[in-house]
Structures are given as C-alpha cells and as structure tokens.
Amino acid sequence: MASDLFSSLRRPRSQVAPPPPSLPHFPRRGYHVELGAREKALLEEDPALKKFKSYKSSVKQVSKIGNALTMLVIAACTYEIFAVATTKN
Q: Which InterPro entries match (predicted)?
C-alpha cells in the first residue's frame, strides 16, 4: 500500500494518469424559486431584536479608544527610549 503511494510520487508528471472525470458540471446557484410565506416571515425585521443591533456604534467607539491608547503607549515608549539614549551620552 505504501509502495503504491510512493511509486506514484516517483513517476514523472507526464506518466501520471489524469484525474477521472467528475460529475457533470452543475451551476452553484439553482434556478430562482419564489420564497414561500414562511421564508418571507423569517426574513422580515423583528422589532424584538432591534435592541441587539445597536452594538456597531459601541464597537467603533471602543476601536477608537483602543487606537488612541495604542498610539499613547507607542509615544511613551519612544520617549523613554529617546530619554535613556540622551542621558547615556
């Protein structure tokens, strides 16, 4: 079994058999079918879930605070490195 595996690796590429033909090509998307009543009801906006969709603004705010803190830390580290380098000279 292992020898079969390695023998296929030792053959030049020109001798390797082409892969077997696969199933006939089917498009990924099927034909358009009109949605039923249940699907339409599931896709409608639910007012009970409205309060959970307000997280985007808080994520943006936390991201901005994180970016500001990162810049502050980088500036402080740069200042400390500069201060140590100038005091040694």
A: SDH7 (IPR034573)
* Distance in angstroms (rounded) separating the CA atoms of residues 67 and 61: 10
In whole angstroms, how large is the CA radius of gyration of the chain? 31
| CA neighbor of 77 nearest in space, from 85, 87, 66, 67 | 85
Boundaries of every domain in the chain = 53-88
pLDDT tens digits, 44-82 = 888 887 777 666 778 889 999 999 999 999 999 999 999
Is the pLDDT at 26 greater than 60? The verdict is: no
pTM: 0.39
CA distance 22 to 13: 21
